[in-house]
Specification:
Rossmann fold; 2 domains; 17% strand; 17 helices; 429 residues; alpha/beta
Length: 429
Amino acid sequence: MSRRRAVLLVANSAAPYSRGLRVARSLAAAGWEVEIAAVADDDAPLEERDGDVLIRRYKPSGRWVRWAERPKGATAARRSRRIPALLLDRFRKAAFWPLAVRGWWATLRRDLPPADLYHAFGILTIAVANDLAADARRRGRAGRVIYDVIDVILDSNNYSQVPAPILATYRFRERRWVHGADAVVTVNEPIADHLVRIWELPTRPTILLNCQPRWSSPEPRPDLIRQSTGVPPDRRIVLFLGRLGRERGLEEAADAVLAVDDAALVMLGFGPWADQLRARDREPRYTGRHFTLPAVHPDEVPAWTASADVSIIAVPANSLNQRLSTPNKFWESLTAGTPVVVGRDLEVMREMVERDRLGAITDPSDPADLARGLREVLDQPPAELAAMRERALAVTRERYNWETAVVDYLALADRLVAGASATRGLPPG
């Protein structure tokens, strides 16, 4: 009897993708054969392993690769000839949305071995997951699909400039894809409420929090950030984790830290702003108060996060997606026992921080108020700051940890595949 096979579809290079890695490891520990099917990238091998998890990266292929390229040529003399190409480019991107990943989809349809379960991370994977599952059923596999709504992307800044009629077609397509899936999971209860309303789901999504595995801080606490940056022992460390780019509050955070005595901002992550942030490290105004470090493997994040005195999440809440978000950086900070300063309109995180007294709430658009929130945490008497750290560790040990969160997900995966096997008259996995 063959093992149950799960394929996790990740529309990036998964080098690594932390949520995908957690799901994959949990399925593998439960006895599944697991593959993460990601997108080929020049900086990552086409195939590697994480324990029992196979990670394969598939190169996009077919006409979609050419269609997804931007029209070339930028000189004024050629502009008029480029207008038809630009219009065709815009038409293709709207008509065949999401165009950028269709070449990857084509390769998956051709090369990916069939599976019993397809876990589709985000809107760029659900359509191909449904297609792959249908083919897998024809080939004797259970072929069930779980759509993981990792964010409400069509209600995010990424799509805020898309004309309303085109955005309406995207919503229609996603809704159709959703109703082709066998189950929906998402990252928190407020997003689940939203999905039930907009999609009229017959079954409420299963909640799979983005929280981290339980972690016990060694004594003394790690000091990896100081060792890497040379920040002196008497200077407090304010940590920003994650993607380095626009609309992350990075400029406001940098100015806020300058208004806090004996503090330095350290950014640990990756993204399009990495080079300009490293250049800012060397500006006289920020020297010794601003450091940019490369991202580390998810398994190493707790020790690095525990090396900070406070984490800052200064994302402006100017979309529904941001207001309802509970990103990795939030859970990573709490798991490490590091208090958080969060924006006042980040509704889900704010409620948790206020209820359990895990940090401070601020106006992320105002560096002065961000500085006030940082001082509120950092200038506490040592015993009170230690108590705040302990509360963060306690809530993650007791409530918000991956070991607890994944239980319902694993039960859902088992039910879907067992039900499919019973329907087809096949022996269960």
